[in-house]
Design a protein that fits this description.
alpha/beta, TIM Barrel, 7-stranded parallel β-sheet, two-stranded antiparallel sheet, 9 strands, about 15% strand, globular, binds zinc ion
């Protein structure tokens, strides 16, 4: 299998203001070198979004990262280096934590649902608690609406790990993904999309992406779990945008 691109990788800038190496372990350059060694054509650096209580890209690190990526493009011309972000989906109104003044600096954005984000309002808080404690048994509708409206309101390359950390109606999400052209991820770390989810939507006109969600350089391009899920689901490999069989 040839990996064309890995759009979902984190570096130490995902740790927050301080380089704790707790959340992610590698530098941007280490991620790039690992991708080159693995023969990957395009590497995307996609730090966690700004509005998280404990981790994610800070304003200061955003500037540093942006400049470093420009420099590494000259230093490593053998690979395409993209600056992305894995934004947090904040509510059911389509809001994600991308800053308007920064959007043009990013080559693409992903968006996903995570715990610990700066959600607004009691409703979001209650659903987060349900997702955290009960896996979202009472929040399927709400979680689905969060993703659907995020896709409608923002230009997102793909939704990362759909259905992880809270149940969703994948059919509903897939229908809107078809309309908006938003891709859906088969994550190389979290088992979402799952084979069961893909079976329900594999006939639809959707771009599927595999993302390693690497939090250390050696895990760049680690797609094995996703390959297994795809085989099990019977999804046509031609619908998986960033690998070539
Ligand atoms: Zn994520
Ligand atoms: Zn991630």
């Amino acid at each position: 299998m040839k990996i064309i691109a890995d759009y979902h990788t984190h570096t130490i800038f995902s740790c927050g203001k301080k380089d704790t190496r707790r959340h992610a372990k590698g530098t941007i350059e280490e991620n790039i070198i690992s991708a080159i060694e693995k023969g990957i054509e395009t590497i995307g650096i996609s730090e966690h979004g700004f509005d998280h209580y404990t981790y994610g890209l800070s304003n200061k690190n955003f500037e540093i990262e942006y400049n470093m990526i420009q420099e590494f493009r000259e230093k490593y011309p053998q690979i395409n280096i993209l600056m992305g972000m894995e934004c947090n989906i904040l509510d059911d109104k389509g809001n994600i934590d991308m800053k308007k003044e920064y959007i043009d600096k990013f080559d693409y954005i992903l968006a996903g649902y995570h715990f610990g984000t700066k959600i607004k309002g009691l409703k979001g808080l209650l659903h987060t608690m349900d997702n955290y404690i009960f896996g979202g048994v009472f929040s399927r509708k709400y979680n689905t609406k969060c993703i659907v409206n995020a896709m409608k309101k923002n230009k997102i390359l793909y939704i990362s790990h759909p259905g992880d950390k809270g149940r969703v109606d994948i059919m509903e999400i897939a229908k809107v993904a078809e309309q908006t052209g938003t891709g859906l991820e088969i994550n190389g770390y979290h088992d979402r999309l799952s084979a069961e989810m893909i079976k329900k939507i594999k006939h639809m006109d959707i771009n599927f992406y595999i993302g390693s969600d690497a939090h250390s350089p050696r895990k760049i391009g680690n797609f094995d779990l996703a390959y297994k899920i795809i085989e099990e689901s019977g999804l046509d490999w031609n619908k998986v945008v960033n690998v070539k069989k």
